[in-house]
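Can't paste images in this forum, so I'm doing it all in text. The chain is below; anyone willing to post the predicted C-alpha cells underneath?
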Amino acid sequence: MKTNLKNIFAALLLVSLAAPAAARSHDQIEEPVDYVNPYIGSISHLLVPCFPTIQLPNSLMRIYPTRGDYTTEMLDGLPVVVTNHRERSAFRLSIIQGDELRHIIPVTWDNEHITPYDYQVQVADNSINVHLAVSHQSAIYEFTFQEPSKSATIVLFTDNGHMLVEGRKASASQRLSRNMRIYFSGEFNVEPEQVGLLRDGKISGEKVTEEPRACGAVRFPAGTKKVIFRYGVSLISAEQAEKNLSREQGREFNLSKVAKAGRKEWNETLSNILVEGGTANQKAVMYTAYYRTFERPVCLSEDGRYFSAFDGKVHDDEGQPFYTDDWIWDTYRAAHPLRALIQPTKEENIIESYLRMAEQMGTNWMPTFPEMTGDTRRMNSNHGVAMVADALWKGLKVDAERAFEYCKKGIEEKTLAPWSGKPAGWIDYFYKDHGYIPALAQGEEENDPNVSGFEKRQPVAVTLGTSYDEWCLSRIAEFLDRKDEAAKYLKLSYNYHNLWNPETKFFHPKDKEGNFLPDFDYRFGGGIGARDAYDENNGWTYRWDVQHNLADLANLMGGREEMARELDRTFAEPMGRGKREFYEQLPDQTGNIGQFTMANEPSLHIPYIYNYAGAPWKTQKRIRQCLDTWFRNDVMGIPGDEDGGGLTSFAVFSSLGFYPVTPGFPVFNIGSPIFTDIRIKLPGGKELHIIARGSSRDNKYIQRATLNGKTWNKPWFSQEDIKNGATLVLEMGSQPNKQWGTDESAVPPSAAKSL
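Text version of the structure:
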C-alpha cells in the first residue's frame, strides 16, 4: 500500500492545479498529509474565505496568517494563537530590523509555504525568513536574518491585557470576554541586549504592565543570525501556559522535532481514510476537506483541567476532555456524523462537553453555537439535539437522560427567535399553540423584543428546523423507552405541514391569522438573505428542508415521480435575475446549479433526495456534478463559507460515496464514489471497504452492488450493516442503471417509514 501511495503522491506534483501550494520535492511526497493543500478556498467567492490553518487535530493552538484572504498584500504582524474560528489572532508579533520601533506593523510577505503543522514565510522584503511549527498547546518560531549586521527587535503585542518581558522570557494575557483571558508564556534561545515595554517608539526600562494595547520589545545585538522563540498558551494562567510548553517541548529549542511530531500526528489522523484511484487533484480535495473537519471544536483540557467561559471557572475534566468552538447549525449535518463514524470516543467527549456547558450556563439549555467565550446562540433552531440522537442510535456512549432534559429545555424554554438566547416570548407561545412561526404581514411592525432587527423571525426556516429538532427529541425519547414523549414529539415533527402550500408545492410564509402571504416570490421574497421568510437561502432551498421525513415530503408533492421532477426543476431553474442582483440579495447562496446552491449547509442533502424519489441514478449524477464543479484543488475551490467542516464534511463523505442525510437515523445514503478503492478505519480495528470498480469521470453510475458478498439493491446502508466491518462492492458504468435501487421497498428510512 505504501508503494502505491508514494506513486500517487508523486503524480500529485505533476498534475496539481493547486498553486500556490507548499513546494515539495518528489521524495517528500509520500504520506497522506502531503495531499493537504491549506490554500484551497483561501479566496472567497463572495463572503468569508477559508484560512490556511496550522494546527494539530482539534487543538487549542490554532494559527493562520493575519490577513484578509490570500490576495491581501500585507501581513498585520505574525500570529500567536487564534481563539475563535475565523477570527483574529490573540496577541501578535512583529520582527523588525533597524531603529524604527512601532506597534505591530504591516509587512509584505513572500515565498509562503503552509502545511497543517508548519508555516514558512519571508517578510521585510525577503530579508527575514520565518518558520513556525505547532503542537497542541504550544508553538515555536524560528527567525533567520539575511542581513545579520543589523540589530533585530521582536515586538509582542496584546490588545487588552498584561505584558511582562524580562531577560529571555516573555508572557502576556489578553482579555477575550468579560470573564475570560488567554495567556502565553515563552522564552528566547538568545540573550537579548535590551528588553522592556515599547513607549513612543523606544524600549523603556519598564518590564510589566496591564493596559490596552500593551507592547513588549526584545532587542538582539547586531550579528545575531537566528532567534528562536517558543511559547505555550493557556486559558487558565501564564504558569499553566509555561507547563504546557514544558510538557510538549521539554527544554529544547527544536523546531524540526515539533514539526516532525506534528506531521506524524496528521498522518496518523488522515490515514483513517485511505483511497486509490481518482485523480491527484481529487485526492487533494478529499484529504484537504478531511483536514478541515479537525479545525473545530478545540480541546481546552490542560493537564486534566479546563477553563470554561460558560461559568467563568476552572474545572477538573474528570478524564473526559472538554471541547468548544463549534457552529452546530453548520456541523450537525455531516461533520459530527463523520466523527461519530471514525472517532466515536472524541464525539462522545464533545457531546459530554456540551452537556456540561448547559449546566454551567445555569439554564440547562443545550448550546447552539458554543464558542471559546460562551454560547453565542447564532443562526436558528436547536440542532444540538440532532448530534445527540445521531450518536445514541449509532451506539455511542452518551448520557441520554441528561441530554434529553437539556435538549428539551433548549427547545421549549429558550426563544426560537434566531440569534437570541433569551427565554421564550410571544412567537414561541404562538408556535406552541399553532405549530408554526408567523410571518409579519406587509407593513406589520415587529412585536417580539426577542427578534433581531437584522436577522428577523425567519419563520419558515425556524418552523422547519424546529420540526426536525422535535423529531430528534422523539428519537431520544424512543431510545429511553419514553413512549408517550416519543409519540408527542413525533407528532410535533409534522409541524412543517402547517406551512406547506399545496397549490405551489413550496413552504410558504403564513401570517398570524393563518393566511399565506400574498404574491410571494420563492426566489426573491423575504428581503436580504430572505430572512423575513427563510434564512440565507430562498424558498427553493427550504422546499427540501425536511431531512427527517422525505417520504412524507414526496407524498405532499404528489408522489415520488413528481418529487423527482421537482428536483430536476431545482437544478435547472434559472436565477431569475443577473448574478449581481441575485447575490446582492442572497450573498450566501453561491455555488449555483440552477436554484440549487452548493455553498450553504441547508442544501447539502438535496442531491441525495433522488434516492427517496425512486431515481438514485440522478443522485449519482448530481453528486459528481457538485464535486467536479464546486470543490477543486485551487484557491477558489470551496463554493461558500466553509464554517470549520460545515461544507468540507460533505465533500469528504460524497467523495467516498455515501452521506448521512438524516442525522438521528443510523443510516447512510449511497452516492457515487470518486475513488476505486476506499478503506475507512472503524473503531476496534474494523474497516469499511468500498470498492467502486471502474469508477472514473464518466463511470459514475452504479450498475449493481453487493454488501458483504450479498446482492444489494438499496441506495443506502445502516450503521448496523457496517459496525463490525463491511465490504461494499459497486460495479460502475457510464450509463445509468435505472432499475438499481428504485423499488419502493428500497427507499431510505424516513419518520413516515422508519427502520
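The CA atoms of residues 151 and 222 lie 4 Å apart. The chain has a mean pLDDT of 95.
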